[in-house]
Structures are given as C-alpha cells and as structure tokens.
Amino acid sequence: MPILVDESASMQVGFDDSKEALQTLAKPFHRETGWKRRLEQDFDVRTYAYSDRLRQADDLAQLQYDGSASELSTSLKTLTGRFQNRPLAGILLFTDGNSTQPLKADTLEDLGVPIYPVLRKRKTIRDLQIVAATVRHSDFEAAPITIDVQVKATGLAGEPATIQLTDQKGKVVDKKQTFLAPEDNDGKEMRFQFRPEKSGIHFYTVSTFLDSDSKTFAEGRSQQEVTLANNRRMLMVDRPQGPFRILYVAGRPNWEFKFLRRSLAADEEIKLTGLIRIAKRQPKFNFRDSTVQSTNPLFAGLGANEEEAAESIDEPVILTLGEPGDEDLPKAFPRDIEELFAYDAVILDDIEAAFFTTDQQLMLRRFVAERGGGLMALGGQESFEKGDYFQTPIGELLPVYLPGKRFTDQDLPSTDAESEGLQDGWRFALTREGLLHPWLRVETTEARERNRLRQMTPLLVRNQILDAKPGAEVLANLQSMQDPNQTFPALVTQRFGKGRTSAVLAGDFWRWFMHVPAGAAPAAGTTNLQNQLSDDDNDGDPGRRWRQWVRWLVSDLPRPIQISIEEPAQKGRPHRIQVDVRDEAFRPLDNAQVHFVVVDPNETAVELTAVADETTAGRYFTTYWSPLPGHFLTEVTVQRPDGSILGLTESGWTSDQLAEEHEQLQIGTEAMEQLALSTNGEVLDISDLDRFVRSLESREMPVMETWTYPIWHRPWMMLIALGCLCTEWGLRRWKGWP
User: Fold this and answer.
1) Is residue 595 within 8 Å of residue 637, measured between CB atoms?
2) Are 456 and 541 in contact (CB under 8 A)?
3) What is the pLDDT of residues 397-451, one digit of tens each?
4) Average pLDDT for 375-381
5) Helix H segments across 166-296?
6) Which neighbouring-strand residues pair with 623?
7) How far is CA 328 from CA 331, 339, 547, 586, in A?
C-alpha cells in the first residue's frame, strides 16, 4: 500500500503562516499515529512524494511543501509502473485535489488499482489573482503592443485594487490602473498599450494587489490574501529587430521615391537602397551616324577623364542612393543570388521588364519563392502592362493578370482620369478585407478610417489590369469621385512560395504629401498614446502609410538564423532551443559552428553545446532546464566553417510555475471524486483515516499472484512428447527408413 503525498506549495494555502502549515501537514505522518501503525501491520507500506516529479520519501513528516508543480497524472502512472505484476492493494493519496497536469480518462483506466484521495478542509479563501495575460503586437506604428490581463477575485468583491506593468528594471510602463475586485464568479479584463523604446527581446511583469497591501506587496506579504504567488505574471515581447534592407529600383527620378525615402528615414530598423536610372541604354550600332560614341550620350562633353569612367552606350546610367555612411553600394541590379538574397524586400517603380535580364527575373522569382522576400510593384509610366511584364517571370509573381499584346489601346480603358472625363479623380477606399489588416489602417475605428480616406487628396493615375489572380486579396479600390459604383483595384496582394507580393495600381500617391488634409494630423482631444503613435504634424498621415506598408512587406520574414524555443510537454522538463542556419544563398549550412548561451534570472550565463539534428539539414539544437522562476535570455552565435561570424540572434522565455500552481486554490473535490470513481476507490477526509484503515481487512482487493513451474512437469507436455515419438515410429515403419 503506497502512500503518495503532494508536496507542492499550494498545500500551504489556507494557513496563517508557513510554520503552522508545516506542523499541521506533518501531523498525520508522525510515527505514533494510530492509522499509520495499523496500516503497516497489514500491508507493506511505501512512502512517496511528488511535485514536478515522483520521489521516494522516507519520512513524510519532514516534507517542506515547496514544490512548484503538481504532476499528479505522471506520478500515478510512474508509481503503478514500479509495482507492475506485484500485489498492489491501492494508493493512499494526500492532496489538495488540484493538479497542473490534466487527468486524462485513458490514463485513469490504465492504472488498474484503487486510488483513495485524502482531502483536507480549508478555511474561507480570500484571494486576488491574475488568471491569464496575453501579448499581441505587430510591426506597424498604429498597432502598439497590447497586453490583455484577466483578473479574478475570491471573497474580495468590491475591494479597491491596483494593477501595474513594469519592465525588467522595475520601471512602471504605461500607467497604473485602479479597479474594484469583481464577484467570485466574474472576471475583469484589463488592458495595457505601449511601445518599447527599441526593438528586440523585452521582459515585463504584470502584477495586481489590493490597495490595503500596497505597502507590503513588494515585500511579499499580504494582510488579506491567502497567497501572493498568483498575483504576478511574467511576459516576453519579441519585436523584430533589423535592420531590414529594402532595394528600390526606379526607371526615372520621380516624386514617389522622394517621399518614400523621407518617410522611411524615420524608421531606424529600415535601411533603404535606391537604384534610380537617370539615362536609358542606347542602341550600340547606329547606321545613320558614322561617328558612333562609345559612352552613353549623357556623358558627352564632360571631358576625356570623365567619359572613360562613364557607362558604355549600351548600359543604363544608374544613380545609387543610400543612407549616410553606407559603403559598397550596388551600381546595378544584383547579378548573383547571394547579393540579391542579402535584401529583405524589393520595390519596383516605373521600370520596364526589359531592364532586367532573364536570369535576373528568374533570380527575383527565387528571391520571393525560396528566400521568402517581399516584392512590391508600384504603378508608374512603365509599370505593369506599360512595362511589358506579360508572360515574364516577374509578371508571374504579381497577384494580377496583365493585358498582353493581343489587347490594343482601343480594347482597354485609359489609365488617367482626365482622358476618362473624371477631372475629380479617384478616391482610395479600403475593401472589407483591407479593413482587417492593421498595416492598412491608421485610425482605431472603421468610421474614422473611412472618414480619413475621404479627406485625402484624390488620385488621378491608375494602371490597367484584367483581374486579380485566384487566391489574391483586393485590399483597396479606386472609387470614382463622380460615380461611386465605378471602382478599380488599387492594392492587390498574395502569397507566393515563402514570400509575398503586392501590386499598387495607383500611380500618384505622392499627391497625398503635396496636399496633406487637416484631418491627417493628430486630432484634438486624443489620448497621449494616440499622439505618440501619430506622425509629426508636418508629415501627417502619408509618411506612416509608407512605413506600415514596408513593414508589412518584411514581416514574418525568414532570417538566415532562425531560432525557436519549444515549451516542454510536461512541467519540470527541459526546454528545447532550436536554430536553423542558412548561408548567403539560403541553403542549409550543415558544417556551421553554433554556440548557445543562456542567461538565467540571476544574470548567470551558461554555455551549452549544440547538437546537429540528424533529420533536418542546417538545424542545430540543445536543451536547458532550470528550477528558477523568471526570464531567460538565449543568445546564439553562428560561425561559418572558416571561423568568420555568420550572424547573431537572440530569443527567450519566461518561467513562472508557482503562479500556475496557485491558479486553483479551492479544494479539487470534483476531480478527486472522478479519480476515485474511475479506479473503484473512495474520497476520504483526514478524520476518516482510522475508520478507513480498519475497513481494509474486509475490502476486496485486486491481489495478483505469480506462479512459476517447469513446463516439462505438465501432463499435456508429456502427451505431446509421446505423440511425437509414435509419429516418428510410424513414419519409419511405413517408409522403411533406417
């Protein structure tokens, strides 16, 4: 008859202090206790304790009840496995009825022995706790980090309380919120919204306490609550960290690039490189002119020295623009895969398909499908159908069907407003699908967003398409100012392989910068958060639009070093830290040197050994376990085979097992009754132990006996042997065998 005791910290709930709890919980297991002495006379008693794992306990009276989990299901399964094929009368289980591991029906049926839970009555519970805390965030300015917290109270209805959010240094984030504790069967939803000062890994702690405990809460003491272990929740926020490299290719200098570059300059995580063609390539042979120049005519007359360094006549003249201090800027569109894959997204504006070689177009296709990069095509004079992208590799990337050469100008409507008699132009309007995407919205409500777009300057240029491709989303339309029923697609997106592509069919968004409406500036009476997330009064709404669109283009982007942390299936098990490594061409790198470093809550750095995964190329992993509660930061350094640094990345997780252990404070009577019913056991009270032990001698118990005997001593074995001898004799006589 094994005795199994729950030594988790939740067993101390309901006592005035820890000393009283340990004395009271140890009292039933003293040697002079009558029920235990009687049980040892009739049974072979084995004593065990469990929290996050099962262990043998020689003296149950010395348990400290400080475990951070209650793995009841695993402990019962392990215990019955130890006594398999042995006469087990049952298991006497001392517990509060709560488990951090669900009790599955199939597990209970496989136990095969009676379970006798012993429960202790508790005093009235008065407690305030955080039931759940979730983090929602995106990469867009108008969508800050949102933390939703669910608070529950027991026996404290109407008590004034406070909830606050602090960072890793203990500084209060956002502002404290006060509320009244809800009724026992009700919960209360609280919300925090803020923006970190920088990207990367951030750890936060949300905590709640009664106003009467405001002075003692930091010391871990409360005058009214039974425990403070469930008053805090630790959270991790991982905001993608750049820099994200964007390659902008334009066929001519235009207004769009000017305002795009100005808008992205406000985002420290975006690094924009522009390739602006200022002169097209010329035919190399001119039969009408006997004096054929060797350089592009743009450089004619600049002098011999300048013309020697100029582009040849059959090469375009490209101006490269980058950020101050940038070195090794490209002088042309990349011609090798490693150079192109170094970028995260490509924007094409007012550039024809003939600008790219066939290899470059196929390489751009691989950039989206295999690399997972983003491609955005803007509508200029030589974009889409005007750029002859029909039946080209880039045209296949786009989310729209383009007209081919079989269509004449008479078959297609014109693309400018004046030729269609629409001097008022078109209004940019989001579709129902577009309103669901945060990167397209600026305002917080649908009505305010539609009103904002109505105030924006009308657009006059659009690009003609046949239709959107299957699976693509039309997120915005151009709506006629004169006839609202006349609409044309303005923004279409789709997934392509591992990446995404988008077609911006309106060609003059720069007008929004030239005529910023009054409604684009932060409205009077808005909150500090809204003002913080708004653009400058001088920049207004259009700048944010470009930043959000580009951020969407690089969101969820595969990185050369991709780290993931798998939560253990069971509490108390190690975390699996996994990293996928790819080279400059995004091929799996099998012979890399990977170094893991984990920094625990005590700021102690632990170096871990990386192990190559045998099933997936370029994948390395390690495992880490720690009993400490708090936040853990993982830093990964990857070196190439020659020893040079390929890259660094980081991630992390939080561990707060005590909060989960104290999530349920009431005695779990229903769960224990189900456990006892499923195993033909009985739920007991501490006062029922003497009666229960005396009744065991008259109870029917599942006794299992094992018999061992020689098989040759069985009568049927003798008959089989005689039959074989007779058969052999008969065959020899019949066949005449010697």
Assistant:
1) yes
2) yes
3) 999 998 875 444 444 444 554 444 445 688 888 999 988 888 888 777 888 888 8
4) 88
5) 255-264
6) 576
7) 9, 12, 25, 22
Whether 697 shows a pLDDT value over 70: the answer reads yes
Would you say 48 and 88 are in contact if contact means Cβ atoms under 8 Å apart? Answer: no
Question: How far is Cα 371 from Cα 247, in angstroms, rounded to an integer?
Answer: 15
Nearest to 118 by CA among 90, 94, 98, 89: 94
List of residues 6+ apart from 309 with CB closer than 8 A: none
Collapsing DSSP states into helix, strand and coil, what is residue 554? helix
**Residue 601: how many CA atoms within 13 Å on its side-chain side?**
15
Residue 659 corresponds to which tokens in the numbers above?
């909060």
Buried b / exposed e along 560-581 (16+ C-beta atoms within 10 A): bbbbebeeeeebbeebebbbbb
Q: Which residues of 403-413 are buried (b: 16+ CB within 10 A; e: fewer)?
A: beeeeeeeeee
At 163, the pLDDT band (50, 70, 90 cuts) reads very high
Per cent of the chain over pLDDT 70 is 86
Average pLDDT (552-573) is 85
Question: Which of 35, 37, 28 shows the shortest CA–CA distance to 5?
Answer: 28
In sequence order, the 6+-apart residues with CB closer than 8 A to the CB of 498 are 368, 369, 370, 371, 372, 558
Q: Which pLDDT belongs to residue 702?
A: 62
pLDDT in tens, 463-484: 888 889 998 999 999 888 888 7
Within 8 A by CB and 6+ apart from 173, the residues are: 165, 166, 167, 192, 194, 204
**Radius of gyration (C-alpha) of the chain in whole angstroms:** 37
Cis amide leading into 629 (omega within 30): no
Neighbour count for residue 715 (Cβ, 10 Å):
7
Residues 210 and 222: beta-carbon distance below 8 Å = yes
Angle between helices 541-554 and 255-264 (to 10 degrees): 80
3-state secondary structure of 514: helix
Q: What is the dihedral of CA 424, 426, 430, 432, to 10 degrees?
A: 100
Which residue type does 155 have?
G
- Average predicted confidence (pLDDT) for the chain: 83
Q: What angle do CA 260, 263, 266 make, to 5 degrees?
A: 145
Q: Is residue 565 within a helix (H) or strand (E), and if so which, with residue range?
A: strand 561-566
Instruction: Report the share of the chain in percent with pLDDT over 90.
Output: 29
CA distances from residue 670 to 74, 97, 118 in whole angstroms, order as listed? 19, 8, 13
Mean pLDDT of 628-650: 91
Distance CA 445, CA 441 (A): 9
- The burial of 394, by beta-carbon neighbours within 10 Å (0-12 exposed, 13-18 middle, 19 or more buried), is given as buried
In whole angstroms, what is the distance from residue 598 CA to residue 651 CA? 10
User: pTM of the entire structure?
Assistant: 0.75
62: three-class secondary structure by DSSP: helix
CB 675 within 8 A of CB 108: yes
Question: What is the separation, in whole angstroms, between the first and last Cα of the chain?
Answer: 65
| H or E element at residue 23 | helix 18-26
Distances (CA, A) of 75 to 2, 114, 298, 322, 655: 12, 15, 82, 62, 22
Q: What is the pLDDT of residues 332-344, one digit of tens each?
A: 899 999 999 999 9
SS3 per residue for 661-714: HCCCCCCCHHHHHHHHHHCCCCCEEHHHHHHHHHHHHHCCCCCCCCCCCCHHHC
What would the two tokens of residue 238 be? 């991982």
